[in-house]
Amino acid sequence: MLGSNYSEVSEFVFLGLSTSRPMQYFFLIFSTVFYVAIVLGNLLVVFTVIFESHLHSPMYFLLANLSFIDLCLPTLTVPKMITDLYSGQNTISSKGCIIQIFVLHILGGSEMVLLIAMALDRYVAICKPLHYLTIMSPQMCIWLLIGAWVIGLIHSMVQLAFVAHLHFCGPNEIDSFYCDLPRFIKLACIHTYQLEFMVTANSGFISMGTFFLLIFSYVFILFTVWKRSSGGLYKALSTLSAHITVVVLFFGPCIFVYVWPFPTVPVDKFLAILDFLITPILNPAIYTLRNKDMKMAMRRLSSQFLSFRKLS
User: Fold this and answer.
1) Cα(254)–Cα(268) distance, rounded to whole angstroms?
2) For residues 258 and 203, is the Cβ–Cβ distance under 8 A?
3) Among 109, 99, 86, which Cα is nearest to 28's?
4) CA end-to-end span of the chain, whole Å?
5) What is the pTM of this model?
6) Rounded CA separation 211/207 (Å)
7) Other CB atoms closer than 10 Å to residue 134's CB: what's the count?
8) Distance of alpha carbon 39 from its chain centroid, rounded?
9) DSSP type of residue 202
10) pLDDT tens-digit readout, 252-267
């Protein structure tokens, strides 16, 4: 299915972030530094949760999986961009483009569901603390994670169905550094208005619906806490502020790209950089710098690692 209908155009050309060679060198250094920081930051969160027994709880289990997705999303696009900036060869095969779209939407759909699971975890922890360990049991966490990946896979397969039978016979330039549906389907040799509407209905409305559901859930949690005790409102707001920040950073670019009816290339490229280079490093920073348990666990692991190196 992948590739059989794409014989007329065998590859696509990325126009990248800039045609200026000095700017390309700047983006090469910028993206390399940030990608290394993304890998190290998110791996640090994942390994800290795995090896620190004090963090074996539902909240940190979900956080580690969020960091794993935040590691995979940039890895799907940024190494290719770095290679293109270095070599000047900005091409990708049609099959590679579709695979990139497919995996991108699996990861994006899974992260949406995972953020809902994290909101559920905070609701139970704040509003039903006595039943927290019963409701958010290890089995429930595993099912939430499986559900996130299954829903992400279904969402991506629906998206792939939109492009599986498209023909590409004309221009093959994509004004970006990665493949995604809005620009990809515009290159098809058909009128794409209906297809663009279906993509908007699928990705755009799902993004908006999930975003408003999450914001409503956080407002509901804060309202519930305020009704019980106004003194606990500040503590709950402090706890949820990191979650709200992550939700806004993740969904803001998604909603703009898939829903905004008049996309502009400079804004789209800025949002793409935000999505793949800025947000994945901000997420671990937001959760670790604002979380005493994570900072203490990282210090313990660092001291253990240093002690092990001295002994060896």
Assistant:
1) 10
2) yes
3) 86
4) 53
5) 0.87
6) 6
7) 10
8) 14
9) I
10) 888 777 776 555 567 7
Contact partners, residue 99, CB within 8 Å, separation at least 6: 2
92: helix, strand or coil: strand
Helix (H, G, I), strand (E, B) or coil at 91: strand
Place of tokens 């253990």: 304
162: closest CA among 94, 102, 222, 90?
102
One-letter amino acid at 210 equals T
The residue whose two tokens read 């709880």 is 57
Cα atoms in the Cβ-side hemisphere of radius 13 Å centred on 90: 19
Query: Which three-class secondary structure string do you get for 171-221?
Result: CCEECCCCCCHHHHHHCCCCCCHHHHHHHHHHHHHHHHHHHHHHHHHHHHH
Residue (of 124, 163, 159) closest to 141 by Cα position: 124
Listed in sequence order, the residues at least 6 apart from 109 whose beta carbon sits closer than 8 Å to its beta carbon are 151, 152, 153, 154, 155, 156, 206
Structural contact between residues 135 and 124, judged by C-beta atoms closer than 8 angstroms: yes
| Closest alpha carbon to 38 in 91, 90, 81 | 81
Tokens of 231: 């003194």
22-38: pLDDT as tens digits: 888 999 999 999 999 99
Structure confidence at residue 165 (pLDDT) = 75
